[in-house]
Target: EGF-like domain-containing protein
Amino acid sequence: MSGEARRTIHRETGSGGWPNGLTVDYMERRIVWIDARSDAIYSALYDGSGLIEVLRGHEYLSHPFAVTMYGGEVYWTDWRTNTLAKANKWTGNNVTVVQRTNTQPFDLQVYHPSRQPQAPNPCATADGQSPCSHLCLISYNQTFSCACPHLMKLQADKHTCKESRQFLLYARQTEIRGVDIDNPYYNYIISFTVPDIDNVTVVDYDALENRIYWSDVRTQTIKRAFINGTGVETVVSADLPNAHGLAVDWVSRNLFWTSYDVNKKQINVARLDGSFKNAVIQGLDKPHCLVLHPILGKLYWTDGDNISVANMDGSNHTTLFTNQRSPIGLSVDYDSEQLYWVSSENGTISRCKLDGSGLEVLDGVKPGKLTKASALAIMGDKLWWADQGTDQIGTCDKSDGGNWKVLRNNTSPMTHMKIYNESMQTDTGRISLTVSH
Model:
């Protein structure tokens, strides 16, 4: 119940594959489920062994929906016949209609102490206090694990949760997730998905107001929301064709984004609420990635094989590189004052100083190691990478690309990734105020 040691105990290879209902037989240490494709009831031991077919193809088992147990009988609801029925839990014999309904019956439960058998509670201590500061989850063999609610992180003592504003944001086509940096299988914030998201391409954040911003190329909008899942709103809804680049200027409270169509190929700016929109750089081709360094007043972007820089008012436009083979994942390392990116055609990770000097390819990321890179992010001494070819998220050392580590598998193609790091924006914001004075 702590979510650990997850595994599949039964995979349907026959005529089934639509398990509508699932219940536990505590007396026999078995699970029982009902399948609406094969119109059957099945039973197996907790580990999936000892599979038996209890009943199939009965007139009162023609479109089953929910199932439960009591004593030696199994109970279920059926949509096609509008019935609540029961039968012997081993043989399926003695099918009996318990109740007929006027409409399709949904769930059912047996209210009886045997359906909630008593057991020792590893989450209870002698003094009556929980061993965890927030959530105590029962694990296997009378053990427990402590867990935290959204926007909190479990500390090194494995018992105490503390509030934290540091997590990995990543975007997929119809979803934005915020996950624990050290354990990307753990959702750190509530996920954003349809109807608020249709085809998201890029995500950024504003730590001052605890908001995230994203661009949706299908609806041609830029939206924002608080990281607790509330306050979803559209801030820009015009002149947004192919807005693949988006960046929040947390110092001057502006929002930048790229866009291009037949007539306009440019980088745009507005206030964070979408007001006072303007184009700061025009005459581009297909601008894609976009990142900012507000302290230096610089913006960087990719366009085809090119990487360019300009002042954030659009002046002093300079092309740094022209041969970077479809660079993506453009990221600023504010600690080392360097620029990082992935060349998507060969999977190498490169970096340079913010003025374009000192270009180098990380030795630990040879061509082919990233089969189809799609995103890159930076924090501390590590890089986070995403690979569409292997559906993986992982890390490596930002110094040389070594210490390669996969953190999450089976993650459908990602479009963008960002480390939400409250201290980075607040610290650099204070620096900028000091410099301006």
Observations:
- Residues 422-436 form the longest helix (15 residues).
- The CA atoms of residues 263 and 283 lie 9 Å apart.
- The chain has three domains: 19-115, 127-164, 166-436.
- The chain is about 5% helix and 45% strand.
